[in-house]
Amino acid sequence: MHSVEECQILSLFSNTGEASPQGFVWAGDDAAATRLLGLQYQLGLRPEWIMPWNTHPWFTPGEANGKLTPDQVQAGLKPLLALLKLLPRASAIVAHGPEANRLAQMLLKTSNPLIWRRGLKVYKARSLHGRAFAGSKERQTEWLIEMGKAYADAMARAGLQIRRA
């Protein structure tokens, strides 16, 4: 569904809450995945243009996968750089949650030429699940609109057509 060759936006998540049964990275729970997929559908953001990734891309069975420690965030930097090398067209990261944003900021501070050659831009976005998305329907709608603006800007930077509803 996601394409290494076509990916232009990396969707970076702080954590998953628990491992998915298939072992894949996901938005965190069914409600969070529904929010993200709905937003992407409304924008016309096709799956091959986006790649999901976790700040700490490992899940240890039997251990809680809650708030990440600074060491776990730091440990995610090397795999993130390796992933970006595999995604030659990626020019934007939408960082969902505080740990994802912290990792993205670490990435921007590296001296890796990959970052400045691509003009990589990071968009800070709210996490899609748990307490981060607990709020009234009105607040959740506001948060989704802000998230949509981040994805729409990332799409425009990449030259991707945004669906107009």
Which properties best describe this structure?
Uracil-DNA glycosylase, 6 helices, single chain, 165 residues, alpha/beta
Report on the architecture of this protein:
- With 165 residues, the protein is α/β, with parallel strands linked by helices.
- Helices cover 42% and strands 12% of the residues.
- The chain is built from six helices and four strands; from the N terminus they run βαβααβααβα.
- A four-stranded parallel β-sheet has the order 2-1-3-4, sandwiched between helices.
- Helix 1 crosses helix 6.
- The longest helix is centred in the last third of the chain and has 22 residues, at 137-158.
- The relative contact order is 0.21.
Give a brief description.
This is Uracil-DNA glycosylase. The chain has 165 residues and is an alpha/beta fold.
Topology readout:
Elements lengths: L8 E5 L16 H14 L6 E5 L15 H6 L1 H10 L5 E5 L1 H12 L3 H6 L2 E5 L11 H22 L7
Parallel strand pairs: 1-2, 1-3, 3-4
Helix pairs in contact: 1-6
What is the residue-averaged pLDDT? 87
Strand content: 5-15%
Quickly give the structural class: alpha/beta
Radius of gyration: 15 Å
With strands numbered from the N-terminus, the spatial order across the biggest sheet is 2-1-3-4
Based on CA inertia axes, which overall geometry fits? globular
Q: Low-confidence segments, ≥5 residues, pLDDT <50?
A: none
Instruction: State the order of secondary-structure elements, H for helix, E for strand.
Output: EHEHHEHHEH
Secondary structure tally, helices? 6
Organism: Sinomonas terrae
Protein name: Uracil-DNA glycosylase
